[in-house]
């Protein structure tokens, strides 16, 4: 990159040509680009087209004094820090300079090392402020992109869900079940070290991907009103592998995307059982990812409480008892304990109108 592009720009404004020449000579020992003006109006016009990184400004000048000029600089939205130069050392003059928007005050006669040191400090502070501002802009943009990604993927998952007309707002409910289970586990279980706020937020969004593989299951199997045959059930079970493998393709291209990474865990393993009798891989205990274990209970609760094409919904109390009986068998006992503490919340979520995606 051309070194001239990276030079920091400093404007000097003083009605004494000798001072302008002296300051220009001092500043030229550094890799700074300087521009000197005897008149404040000319300096303002130049700065609007060429914003500086710092301004050295005399106070007592004809036509427009330094205080007025500093206020006009700020009014026009120029962000360069202003360092006042003056032979006046009265406290009220210094205070007036700060009130006008100045950041520092150098008294005349000045020493070149002091001038350079003060300029260094304020240029560094300006660079830090710009870096922080840039980080905020980047973070805002990342958040916007993340929200757009979540909304897009939620819409895709919703398409898979809508093939089964009886599931209603299943995705919205399981999001809330998973969030509440994770928050309770964070406060009351051995998993608290894993369940950071970022993990819980990721789980909330990734939970919508658990059944995305069902888009590839034939209607004759997915919507069959009766019990599936053994062969049909084997087809149904493939939705876990289909969902996981398709997301793995995305993850291979974007390996830093934790949302997709957790989505793979959930899609693949939310039908595994604590006792190892689940599918697709027969994982058991803590070999099943925690996200999938939480999802497993949330999914089963909502499925049993919902009307399906092959059966009517069960009531909350029945489902609660069934889940309690499966503690340490189908489900992780600590997650079941969290569910029991939250069961009234689950019931309320189940009976409340559909949650909106956020």
What keyword list fits this structure?
358 residues, alpha/beta, Rossmann fold, Hypothetical protein af1432, 2 domains, 5-stranded parallel β-sheet, 14 helices, 5 strands, 58% helix, disordered C terminus
Provide a quick synopsis of the model:
The chain folds into two domains: 3-134, Response regulator (Rossmann fold); 162-351, Hypothetical protein af1432 (Orthogonal Bundle), CATH 1.10.3210. It has 14 helices and five strands. It has helices spanning 3-6, 17-27, 40-49, 66-75, 91-100, 112-161, 170-188, 197-206, 219-222, 230-253, 258-269, 290-304, 316-325, 333-351; strands spanning 8-13, 32-37, 54-58, 82-86, 104-107.
Radius of gyration: 33 Å
Report the mean per-residue pLDDT as an integer.
84
Main β sheet profile: 5 strands, parallel
Helix and strand run: HEHEHEHEHEHHHHHHHHH
The global form is elongated
**Weakly predicted, low-confidence segments:** 353-358
Task: Give the CATH level 1 class of the largest domain.
Answer: Mainly Alpha
Distance between the termini: 44 Å
Estimated helix fraction: 55-70%
Give me the CATH architecture of the largest domain, please.
Orthogonal Bundle
> In total, how many beta strands?
5
| Strand adjacency order, main sheet | 2-1-3-4-5
CATH homologous superfamily name of the largest domain?
Hypothetical protein af1432
Count the DSSP helices: 14
Question: What's the structural domain tally?
Answer: 2
Structural class, by secondary structure, is alpha/beta
Regarding quaternary structure, what we see is single chain
The CATH topology of the largest domain is what?
Hypothetical protein af1432
- What share of the residues does DSSP label as strand, in percent? 5-15%
């Amino acid at each position: 990159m051309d070194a001239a592009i990276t030079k920091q720009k400093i404007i000097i404004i003083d009605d004494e040509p000798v001072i302008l020449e002296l300051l220009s000579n001092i500043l030229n020992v550094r890799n700074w680009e300087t521009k000197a003006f005897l008149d404040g109006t000319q300096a303002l016009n130049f700065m609007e087209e060429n914003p500086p990184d710092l301004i050295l400004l005399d106070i007592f000048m004809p036509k427009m004094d330094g205080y007025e000029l500093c206020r006009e600089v700020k009014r026009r939205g120029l962000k360069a820090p202003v360092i006042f130069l003056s032979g006046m050392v009265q406290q009220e003059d210094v205070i007036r300079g700060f009130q006008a928007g100045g950041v520092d005050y150098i008294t005349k006669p000045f020493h070149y090392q002091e001038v350079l040191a003060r300029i260094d400090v304020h240029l560094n502070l300006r660079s830090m402020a710009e870096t922080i501002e840039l980080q905020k802009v980047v973070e805002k943009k990342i958040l916007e992109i993340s929200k757009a990604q979540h909304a897009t993927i939620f819409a895709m998952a919703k398409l898979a869900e809508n093939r089964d007309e009886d599931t209603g707002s299943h995705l919205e409910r399981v999001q809330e079940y998973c969030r509440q289970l994770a928050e309770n586990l964070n406060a009351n279980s051995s998993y608290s070290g894993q369940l950071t706020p970022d993990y819980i937020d990721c789980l909330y969004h990734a939970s919508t991907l658990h059944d995305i593989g069902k888009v590839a299951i034939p209607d004759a199997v997915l919507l069959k009103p009766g019990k599936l045959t053994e062969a049909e059930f084997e087809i149904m079970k493939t939705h876990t592998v289909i969902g996981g493998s398709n997301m793995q393709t995305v993850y291979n291209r974007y390996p830093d995307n934790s949302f997709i990474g957790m989505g793979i865990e959930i899609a693949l393993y939310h039908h595994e059982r604590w006792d190892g009798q689940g599918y697709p891989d027969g994982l058991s205990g803590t070999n099943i990812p925690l996200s999938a274990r939480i999802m497993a209970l949330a999914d089963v609760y909502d499925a049993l409480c919902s009307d399906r094409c092959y059966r009517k919904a069960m009531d909350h109390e029945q489902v609660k008892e069934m889940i309690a009986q499966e503690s340490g068998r189908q489900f992780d006992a600590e997650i079941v304990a969290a569910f029991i503490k939250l069961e009234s919340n689950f019931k309320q979520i189940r009976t409340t109108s559909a949650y909106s995606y956020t």
